[in-house]
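Weekly structure sync, notes
Attendees: PL (lead), two postdocs, one rotation student
Agenda item 3: pending single-chain targets
PL asked that the sequence for the first pending target be pasted directly into the notes so everyone works from the same version. It is reproduced below exactly as submitted, 623 residues in total.
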Amino acid sequence: MNKKILVVENSITVQKIFTKTFDEGYNFRFESDLGKLVEAVFDFFPDILLLNSDFSEPSSFDFVKLIRSIPCFKNLAIGMYSNTENSFDEEFAYSCGANTFVRLDPKTLLLNVEELSEISSYSGERMDKADVIQARKTMDDRKLVVISSGMNGEARLRNKILTSLFSMMNNMESVESVATEFLSFLAEFMCAPAVSLNLVENNGPHSYVMCSSLLSDAEKEDFLKVCKSDFEDLDLDSSLSMLVPQFLDSGINMDAFKTSGVPLSSYLSAKLLDSSGREYGVINVLRGGNFSSLQSDLFNFCSENASILFEKVLMIKQKIFVEKRIRKAFSLFVPEQVIDSYVNGISDSESESQKTALGEKRPVAVLFSDIRSFTNISECNKPEVMIAFLNRYFTIMCNIIKKHGGTVDKFIGDAIMALFGAPVSYEDNTRRIVAAAYEMREALPSVPLGDLILPPGMKFDIGIGINYGDLTVGSLGSEDRTSYTVIGDNVNLASRLEGLTKTYGSMILVSDSVKKDIEENLKCDDFVFRYLDDVRVKGKSTPVPIYGVDRNIDEFSPVYRDCYNKGFSLYKQGVFNLAKEYFSKCLVEVPEDKASKLMRSRCEEFIANPPENWDGAIKFTTK
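Predicted structure, written out during the meeting:
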């Protein structure tokens, strides 16, 4: 049985080519009116349906979609073809249900039709005629026409434009990438051999251009001059004298849009406006022949929506630019996770903003470190040597603080103030801060002295004081300059402890609150704390137990530790003569131990001049 082919085509020449090209054994029927297509499909009962996609109002694509919606035609082989240059016909054809699509070229028309004839291989099982007859009885011709013509060709193209622009948002971190994708799309749907996009970006004006390789240098130069002139018409804050166009690779064959012998005489341009109405860019299109009214309307539609796209792209570029500056400015002082929280907007909620602005109280561990005898060292060195050395020293110490999750609050001359618990807090802030101090102490030998000269008999050393307690945190400063920091007595105590490290001969001193949180709350035994004294620092009336942080348990012998603890217990009770004996034994074990020398000296003083109202704590009146 011969296969039946229904062809929707109004050109007699193309109809004849179809009948000559297909093999014998085919029975053709031609229709030139889409309005009669549904009736023809039911009456002719074809094995193959071929449609020219150039029909509109009603549209060929909608009719294919309609035919596919009828169950009895689900296996019907459908082919579409076009002899126009609309770049999206093929995509539309496959999306609406066609099995194949071929573009007809007058020069290769016979070959194109022969290619289309291969659709016979798509033909599935023959339709059941009874099902077709039954389906026809339930169809209303007028209803079918209304449904099929509900979406005309222009609406489909508008939808395609919106879909394409929306897909470009997947790569918005690069202006150049979005510009490349957009200009390729623009050139394709406008069939233009030259397109350009000029934008005012945060770092100045930029020009992106795509051109067919068939354009002469003169044609390119003329196009660029017009584009620049349109760009200059915008209210720009910067000059375009140094603007150099950036030619992009389209990834498509733009030579197909350049017709030999046809002058490039049609030109369209549109301004890009942001949400406030400010002009920030221009789109330009050039082609041979005339733009149709539909193409002009679609170009304007595309430009309006491209304004939204590129406004968002430039906003993201600005955000990335600011983020890089933030990371560069704070990378030396703040851990990466803290910077991430700010640039990602974690702290941008209204409540968090209010807390930052107005201040809040929270537990924070504070570290102060200071270079020993820095004034004496400064007197021996040139300013440039001191600055270079401090920069090397700060870099090593700040990296350690960041590594353990702390934030460098400020530099005070040669001193460092660091926070653990603000702005980002952890459950184990005290463990982290002591671990950081421990590593800072161990890293001292690795600090390059360079040209630094130390006074005779002096070695490079630091002192570190650590305290933990409630502090007020927030942004402090004037209207034009603020900084995020902490204030409170517990900050002062950390600073006082740092000052006492030299007195007690311990590089790291911590308060009782630090030791208690680590041992009692965190149940951590990573550190060796050595009880040294109870002190009243300047500005505090309540005694504070202070502890040295030893490198390990073997740094001091068991005999030393036992004697110091017994001596200190007797000292607190006011039994100074016996306490003195134990501290003397400590010095037998560690002759240069400053803490034991200090405590024995006090015992001798208090034996000679007994203190009144003794409670076991010594008062320091200096910072």
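Discussion points:
- Residues 9 and 32 are 5 Å apart (CA to CA).
- Confidence is low (pLDDT under 50) at residues 145-151, 346-354.
Action: rotation student to compare against the earlier draft before next sync.
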